[in-house]
Design brief:
Layout: H1 3-51, H2 54-60, H3 62-72, E1 80-81, E2 87-88, H4 95-101, H5 114-126, H6 138-142, H7 149-153, H8 170-176, H9 224-228
Antiparallel strand pairs: 1-2
Helix pairs in contact: 2-3
């Protein structure tokens, strides 16, 4: 290579490098966008997983939801308190506790609609909410699922007898409790909602005991008269 060619090459090299700079920057741009998108996807996935956990309910809506999370996390089969801090002689009388023991989270029963979540977020940010929260009835719980009350409470896999039989109908419930001196699942005065007796975050109530003294109370359950005495604060 001649001296002239060498000099020309040396002069062109900085120019070539300068021309290559924008190309390198252009190549970095898609990579940067890809990383940002990946981070956002992972973050959103993590948030959604957390959204399904009980800790999310109390972390985001901590003031009104604390009593509900506290009852959910109580030890099973011992003395405890309900969401209003009333004494409960056996925490198994609260469905929140027994469902947790079976490995279910809040979202197994509380399936909110998008409009409900937006409304709750708005009320929480503005501070315009009641405390403690109103007790959700079955109509509210089933709103997003599209199920009727019996379908919701007797979903497949929820209630299984010792021999492995799934209880998914009223008739099966009647049969499963047929050995009791007073069978609470026999609709002697018309069918009632499951939630009339079974409560999530407070002691369940033996409604039949309002008239039938022979109706045995499961451990921790209370009578309608005792329900009327609960302190709601």
């Amino acid at each position: 290579m001649s001296e002239e060619q060498t000099s020309s090459h040396a002069e062109q090299t900085p120019k070539q490098e300068a021309a290559a700079q924008p190309a390198k920057k252009k190549n970095r741009k898609p990579l940067t966008i890809g990383v940002i998108v990946a981070v956002l996807v992972v973050a959103c996935a993590g948030l959604w997983v957390w959204h399904e956990q009980p800790s999310f309910c109390a972390a985001i809506c901590h003031i009104p939801m604390d009593p509900y999370l506290e009852t959910y996390e109580e030890e099973a089969g011992v003395e405890g308190v309900d969401k209003w801090n009333n004494a409960v002689s056996d925490t198994n009388a609260m469905l929140a506790v027994t469902h947790r023991v079976e490995g279910e989270t809040c979202m197994a029963c509380h399936v909110p609609t998008l409009s409900e979540q937006v409304s709750e977020l708005t009320h929480w940010i503005s501070g315009d909410y009641v405390f403690p929260l109103y007790e959700a009835d079955l109509d509210k719980l089933t709103e997003a699922s599209g199920m009727d009350a019996d379908e919701f409470c007797l979903k497949s896999g929820c209630h299984v007898t010792g021999d492995g039989t799934e209880l998914t109908t009223r008739a099966q419930l009647v049969e499963a409790t047929a050995d009791l001196a007073f069978n609470p699942h026999v609709a002697q005065h018309g069918e009632r909602l499951c939630s009339d007796c079974h409560k999530g975050h407070r002691a369940s109530v033996m409604v039949c005991a309002d008239c039938h003294n022979e109706a045995e109370l499961p451990s921790g359950w209370i009578t309608p008269d005792e329900e009327d005495q609960l302190i709601i604060s």
